[in-house]
Design goal:
The protein is of the alpha+beta class. Helices cover 41% and strands 16% of the residues.
C-alpha cells in the first residue's frame, strides 16, 4: 500500500491518498486538488506531479 499526505507538498491540508500504485495516488490527488483546492487541471503541472511522487511513501496500513 502507498500513501501520500497533501501537507507534505506544502498545503495546510489533512488529505491523505492511499492506493496500490502511483497512478492511484495521482488520480486521487487530481480529484482532491480540483475539488478542495480549487485548482484547474492545467494547474496540476508536471513539476507538482513530481513533488507528489517524491513524497509517496510505502505504508503498512
Amino acid at each position: 500500500m502507498l500513501k501520500f499526505k497533501c501537507k507534505d507538498v506544502g498545503f495546510d491540508c489533512g488529505f491523505v491518498a492511499k492506493g496500490k500504485t502511483e497512478e492511484d495516488i495521482l488520480s486521487q490527488c487530481a480529484v482532491h486538488a480540483t475539488k478542495d483546492h480549487n485548482m484547474k487541471p492545467e494547474d496540476i503541472t508536471d513539476e507538482l506531479k513530481g513533488k507528489i511522487k517524491s513524497k509517496i511513501k510505502k505504508s503498512l496500513f
